[in-house]
Amino acid sequence: MELDPLLLSRLQFAFVVAFHAIFPIFTIGLATYLALLNGLFFKTGNPAWKRLAEFWAKVFAVVFGMGVVSGIVMSFQFGTNWSNFSQASANFLGPMLSYEVITAFFLEAGFLGVLLFGRDKVPPGAHLFAALMVALGTFISSFWILSANSWMHTPQGTELIDGTFHVTSWWAAIFNPSFPYRLGHMLLASFITGGFVVAGVSAWYLLIGRDQLANRKALSMSLWLLLVLTPAQAVLGDFHGLNTLEHQPTKVAAMEGNWETQSGAPLLLFALPDRDIQGNHFEIAIPKMASLILTHSFDGEVPGLKEVPKDEQPPVWITFWSFRIMVALGFLMIAVAFYGLWLRRDERLYRHRVYLQTLRLMSITPFIAALAGWFVTETGRAPWLVYGVMTHAEGLTPSLTGGMALFTLIGYMAVYAVVFYAGVFYLTRVVRGGMLDTEREPDEQVERPMRPFSATHIPFDTERQGG
């Protein structure tokens, strides 16, 4: 059987991007949290804020390193697997990626050392400034990367002449129609991810009795954040969906599993899309609800996949189900955040063992939701590399063979497996050894620790604490 270099190249890029994406999604939110913790310590002098800042800085260092290592590979693939696309888009994407390096990566790298190692070596104000610059660097990086990626979905400000994109308006190309929504959606996802990870780790520390004073502060802060941002993400997601309906109607049709253009389209809760028959099996639907959500009218028209030829339809099954996973996890996160507000009423928040265990388990859900959303975004664009202008096949490296693509795919998977194992190993060690009771200031009140209801549910080693 002949190996398909196009399919293997798409799988390779999807694997690399999906692996890399989970790290910046976390570090963007965590960098902001670190800046806030350092600012609170600078203002109040409370040692609890210092202990939290020092602990989460260690976590940030490990995750940031994994993100850098995994992200470098992506730029190589543009040349090895997508040379036609690289050559065609160089006038726009070349400067965009260089702007990201010059304005963001150098900023982060320049101040990261001060943030991690300079607390007792530079004035407190300089250390706080370093934390703020690292956080700012993550925002700037997101700006350029999301702008470049959004241009591939809603290309504006460029013109394709003789196989090469020429920029006609930098403003229109950078601030293309989908960019503001995608940037906002990404930043909120990053803050929510950081919030749930901090909440999950803090909840575990409370269960095993580590530094309850500091971890109560961390848990309370993260839950207030999630209480605001999780419903805000749902609202922004609705606006993003309306923008996608306007500029990428076929993607919306795949997300909804809608084959025929129709008014009063139902919302499919469950279905098995079948591209071969151009329809669905085993539908469970709410009448007219898709039209209401997408057009804000019960009789609004929703586009169908049959509006485009079969070879221009995206892989419906993965787009359809990834969207439902993302939405379901989003509503679950909203429910967990609001239940925390309910527990505050009678001060049960820090004593409710089941809820604290739930928070631990929830710490992984933002990563799954973000990856599901990324699958929706990228698979829903297929077969277009630049939507409506250049297909994946047209952007592929002409000399690339299936064997070469398979070899590099296996190589990346092997290397990333080592990177992931090493990162998780050191990250686990950081969490196991963090926030120890011996780090508590002698004048701070020690509260009696709680025992978790089941030690087998704790993923970290608790033997050192007698758990």
In short:
By secondary structure, the chain is mostly helical. It has helices at 5-44, 47-80, 83-117, 124-153, 170-174, 179-208, 212-247, 249-256, 289-295, 316-344, 353-362, 365-379, 392-395, 402-433, and strands at 158-161, 164-167, 262-263, 267-274, 279-286, 301-302, 384-386, 390-391.
Draw up the topology in text:
Layout: H1 5-44, H2 47-80, H3 83-117, H4 124-153, E1 158-161, E2 164-167, H5 170-174, H6 179-208, H7 212-247, H8 249-256, E3 262-263, E4 267-274, E5 279-286, H9 289-295, E6 301-302, H10 316-344, H11 353-362, H12 365-379, E7 384-386, E8 390-391, H13 392-395, H14 402-433
Antiparallel strand pairs: 1-2, 3-6, 4-5, 7-8
Helix pairs in contact: 1-2, 1-4, 1-6, 1-12, 1-14, 2-3, 2-7, 2-14, 3-4, 4-6, 6-7, 6-11, 6-12, 7-8, 7-10, 8-10, 10-12
What features would you describe in this structure?
It is globular, with a radius of gyration of 24 Å. The protein has 14 helices and 8 strands. The strands form 4 sheets. A two-stranded antiparallel ribbon has the order 1-2. Helix 2 packs antiparallel against helix 3, helix 6 crosses helix 11 and helix 10 packs antiparallel against helix 12. The chain is mostly helical and 467 residues long. Strand 4 and strand 5 form a beta hairpin.
